[in-house]
Write a structure and sequence with these properties.
The chain is an alpha/beta fold. The protein is 40% helix and 13% strand.
């Protein structure tokens, strides 16, 4: 245990505290078993360490942060560690990189059932399976999915802009008031295109010059390591998955032709649909459907977008199509803020939000024509900094979380 506490102290001594993400307030930390899921690089480790540093004294031994891939766990089990921790009065156990520990779910279940006064927080891959056949944690565990930085958080972290979040309803009802408040602190359009290219992953602020290479490494790690380990992807098909992502990065986001996509990368149609599902679980793409309540696992999506616009600039061999960039940003920010995003169809706006909002995404000259028949129809327009009627700046949707 002494070794673990030494590392605990080292981790907390260097964790940055200048910026805390709002995601921390979305978690109910009083629950006995919490999982924080998300792709590599979105800041799960930092979030847990910041929470500990905010709520516990430096020498408090009632709390322990450790990483499941530490050498310590080559000769010690999670169960034994929890037993020892509880014997000395331990109350809060934080375990990072839990997916790298074999049979983690079974041991976490045993710890949860044995130590009724112990609170456990684990973090892991977006592909973390709560019910993996070894131990069903679905009734015990509450999972939270952590996204990358919103445009608002990017401005706060990089430029000191202190703008609050706004709900979607508030934004749609008082867009001009909100835009005016933001513009009193900065010129959003000055930074928006930079964010679309780089800044979604927090490590951007650690090394801006190497950002795209790091994002590419994250994507390769997910495909080469996580998908084979946690979704059974045949290692011989990892190159095809990368080819699939490259094709998607260059597509104009109209209706999807799965047969053509399968032929292009050389795999069968059912396999393509399965891979698309796994890529969405890994937070690399969004599959969009016209009606989410009726979809099946291997149903053909009506539209496919990459998870965030930064991926477009990393994966595409050419300059991404601006319409694709805009739609990718919009879908990402709405989805990350907890809204249901569906394909709007060719005649009723690009997106349907929460079942009752139709929103068309485009440039500054985009009109309301495609949503004029909708009871709640709006345009999210790029390259404008204020709202007119139902036309709202695209960047403003980056303040929802």
């Amino acid at each position: 245990m002494d070794k673990l506490f030494e590392r605990h102290d080292e981790y907390l001594s260097i964790v940055p505290m200048e910026f805390n993400r709002n995601f921390m307030q979305q978690i109910d930390w009083s629950l006995r078993l919490i999982a924080i899921k998300g792709p590599k690089g979105v800041g799960k480790t930092t979030l847990m360490q910041q929470y500990i540093k905010q709520h516990y004294a430096p020498d408090d031994r009632h709390v322990l942060f450790c990483s499941a891939d530490a050498p310590y766990f080559a000769t010690h089990t999670l169960v034994d560690t929890a037993n020892q921790f509880c014997k000395i009065g331990g109350q809060h156990l934080f375990i990072d990189e839990i997916h790298k520990y074999e049979n983690w779910s079974r041991e976490i279940k045993d710890i949860y059932d044995l130590h009724r006064n112990l609170h456990i927080v684990i973090s892991g891959s977006s592909l973390l399976q709560i019910n993996d056949g070894q131990a069903d944690l679905s009734r015990r565990l509450t999972a939270y999915s952590m996204p990358g930085l919103s445009f608002r958080e990017y401005l706060t972290m990089g430029f000191g802009v202190n703008a609050p979040t706004i709900s979607l309803d508030q934004l749609l009802s008082t867009p001009n008031q909100f835009c005016t408040e933001v513009k009193q602190q900065c010129h959003p359009l000055e930074h928006f295109k930079s964010y679309l290219k780089a800044g979604y992953y927090p490590f951007y602020f650690e090394s801006k010059t190497n950002y795209q290479n790091t994002v590419e490494s994250v994507v390769n790690y997910i495909i080469d390591t996580e998908l084979p380990n946690y979704r059974g992807l045949e290692t011989g098909n990892t190159r095809r998955i990368k080819a699939l992502l490259k094709v998607l990065s260059q597509m104009v986001p109209y209706e999807v032709d799965i047969t053509k996509l399968s032929t292009t990368i050389g795999i069968q149609r059912p396999t393509t649909l399965k891979y698309l599902k796994h890529l969405e679980e890994a937070s690399l793409i969004h599959r969009l459907f016209t009606e989410m309540s009726t979809i099946t696992d291997l149903q053909k999506p009506d539209k496919i977008l990459l998870d965030n616009s930064n991926l477009l600039y990393v994966l595409s061999d050419k300059q991404p199509e601006i319409g694709t960039v805009r739609e990718t940003f919009f879908c990402n920010q709405l989805h990350s803020a907890g809204h249901r995003v569906e394909y709007g169809g060719m005649k009723s706006g690009d997106f349907r939000i929460n079942g009752n909002l139709a929103i068309e995404v485009g440039g500054h000259d985009k009109t309301l024509r495609q949503v004029k028949e909708e009871a709640k129809g709006y345009v999210a327009a790029d390259d404008i900094d204020s709202s007119t009627f139902h036309k709202i700046p695209l960047w403003a949707f980056g303040f929802l979380y």
